[in-house]
Hints:
alpha+beta, 5-stranded antiparallel β-sheet, globular, binds zinc ion
Amino acid sequence: MRSHRGWAECSKEAFNTGLDALARALKNWSDSRKGARKGRAVGFPRFKSRRRSTPTVRFTTGVMRIEADRRHVVLPRLGALRLHESARKLARRLEAGTARIMSATVRREGGRWFVSFTCEVERAVRAPARPGSMVGVDLGVKHLAVLSTGERVANPRHLVVAARRMRRLARAVSRCVTPDRRVRRVGSNRWARAQQELSRAHARVVGLRRDGLHQFTTRLTREHGTVVVEDLNVAGMLRNRRLARHVADASFAEVRRQLTYKSEWNGGRLVTAGRWYPSSKTCSGCGAVKTKLTLAERTYTCTACGLSLDRDLNAALNLAALAREVTDDRSGRESLNGRGADQKTRSRGQVAVKRLPGTARAGQAGTVPPQGGTTAQRSLLSTRR
Ligand SMILES: [Zn+2]
């Protein structure tokens, strides 16, 4: 089955997906060299092994639809595929004409197949429950976040909980007949099963964390008119030098990414404090700035006015105050935000039509919009046809 598949048997998209990704990688690299691209320098694309990458294919042309039962999707070449979850949310939008499927991506994660749709969506204008409310969010490791309202959002630490089971599964994998290409040994069936169980455990942790973050960011943006967060690098570099840095970093970035688009969806505003804004060292009562504050000091005590409160709450209060400053003095201070797009506010009563940067047309694989465009709905595919 491996390399004997005929050209005609495969969808041409299987090849195009890889070529499209390569084309984008090359463009990013050359734009980065020419200085036409923001952000970190992009390197030359590296070789990608099919053995170590996530199998994925993106369909951009042909029939892509959801069957009337909302339990099957139809994709080019593959035909109708049964879903584990109902696709009713997307189906409703498609029926109402407020969404149009641009592309469909099928990928395997943790031993399961997923399909996600990139859609052009017309969103109804929404307003947060409390448009005038401003909330500062201090992201951390001990707590996922401390809000300026005094609320502490717990960090569920799914990985720590699952670690024991994962160790056991990993041991089971290593005891099996593992594949070894040097001696042309293929893995045993037991190995494949054990491996699958382990990757399921990992995927479960990922899923739990993702669900928690989504619920948190949705709640924040639906409720408050203005959400203030720190620039990522402050949190990443100054705070968690030791524990679970990578995990935490990834979550911080994800929280900010979700807040960015969700605040726009919900008609709110996201303000990002500058990288060097001393949110932890400033007194939220009198504004005095300490020169030094060690990580061990969990309580902030002001030497100027004597105020004493929890360190993270103090930081969150400062962030909320920063938003007030931005609002009062709209002219020049907008640059507090590193990325201009984050602060965009929309006038009400206007229908927002989200558009992708490029519009895909049938037969033009080269003009496919970049991934992560507008909205994507993930559905779990059943492995049985
Ligand atoms: Zn003070």
